[in-house]
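ASSEMBLY PREDICTION REQUEST
Request ID: AP-0331
Submitted by: J.K., bench scientist
Number of chains: two
Total residues: 570
Priority: normal
Notes: Please return the full assembly, not individual chains.
Input sequences:
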Amino acid sequence: MTAPGVQLGRRGLFALGAGGIAAATLPQAARARERTTARIVIAGAGAAGITMAARLSQRLEGARITVLDRRERHVYQPGLTLVGSGVWTPEKVISTNAQWMPRGVAWIREAVAEFDPVGNKVVTDTGRQVPYDFLVVAAGIELNYAGIEGMSEALIGREGIGSVYAGPEAAAATWREMARVAERGGVLLHGRPATEMKCAGAPLKLALLSHARLARAGTRGRSEIVYNAHNDATFSVPAIHRRVVELFGERGIRINYGHVLKAVDPGRKIATYRTANGEVELRYDFIHVVPPQRTPAALRNSPLAWQSGPLAADGWVEADRRTLRHPRFPNVFTVGDATGVPRGKTAATVKKMTPVATDNLVDVIAGREPRAAFNGYTSCPLITDIGRAMLVEFDYEGRLVPSFPFVDPLRESWFGWLVKDQLIHAVYEAMLGGWV
Amino acid sequence: MDMLTPAGILGISLALFGLPLIAAGGAVALAGLIAWIGIARAEGGRARLCAARLPAVAIGAVVGVGMAVALLAATQSGLSSLNGVLDWVVFLAPAAGAGVGAALVAWPVLALLRPASGRPAQQPAVEGDGLRHV
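STATUS: Completed
Returned structure:
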């Protein structure tokens, strides 16, 4: 972790450089700030919460912005697949929330225990009541490892079990297990849960990267890699699904459709899957477990969650999918993983969501109707090998919407890998500062 | 794209390289430019620059190749990772840029370090006998 002095220094450098030159280069309209004394509470200090805090503090003058989150550590989650495949070290994805918290924003280091949108307040886990005029929900996702029988977070890195989702240490432990199996070969199981999940491309990347690691170790020939899709597709966007099937076919990765992980038995190294034809047991030497995912209990149990429909079961926050405004509580906006919209639980989504939510919140504060619209943009630099990736980007309708018109999103390229390995981390940090 | 706004480019560049490195690069470029102008305007400056031309090109080539190797090493890739024209352009552009930049910065420095004499074409012709004396 970075020393506090260095954190301030780095933030200072950002502010000095970016603030000075950007002020000189931004159009005047973009610099115009809305005056308000509104109390804005942001629940969550992950990528979405911090970016919203940065953007709102740039756009509003006089607003009292408070961020609520107990976590001191900030994790660059898009890098976890690279840690989990031994490409990056875990240190590369770890920083602190203090490093990114914008100046002038109050940070209460307590978690939200209760949302009370009727009373316009949240209650923290110490019992503190924090009233607000406007609420931004950026509370993230809860990984429900207990939703898989026999599985717990403590098992990651033991008995052939890996899972990059639980954090940098878990991702590093995943790599140790994968590397151990790569030395002699074996059966490697991959898959995803039936719930909504963050970065649905990550399990596919891990499958492809495990192939790359086995091939480099010379043990691919005596190994079997299986991807267990929860339904009848490897990915929800048909064009990407078809391409993944091609890639898996080229690499000899077998796909089982309609397999949802129900239980693991670390002692026997057996995974049990729920299928349409009953339960199926598969032996493994390495398994990458992706847990079922849902919103934190405080959100699930609150009136903010969808009350009916496919997103109600796991407590995803109800929102207009274009404006990101809560339809029943109009002073509430939602961004990030907890948002109950059909797509988009990636950092790239946060990058596109936060300007929309900021514009619309500022409009509402100013007494205008929200005008900005989120199109469901989700991006997943789909790593296909160490040294190659596909820059797939899509919207609500599943249309491919490439940022670079000269890049074929379904073609493996070193450029895609360069973007994933070198550039996106910088874009992410610029996003946290509210610059992109 | 919002990344291609001035603020976006600046923010990403700062995150990617850091202000000290960007400032150092700018300082080197500025110093090189000043040296260039100073030498070009000085007496015998053009001759010095001509004499330093080939060594500067050699330095640029070394830096360019080094940049290419470093780029592959930094991305844990090999030439076999490159897949299509775009990849080759993206791979060669920074190498070429670094090489040309290094040559342009090294050129005036080498011109200052090398003696002005040394090349027949750089000496003034002696009028009268129709021969160039070296």
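REVIEWER COMMENTS: The radius of gyration of chain A is 22 Å.
SIGN-OFF: pending second reviewer
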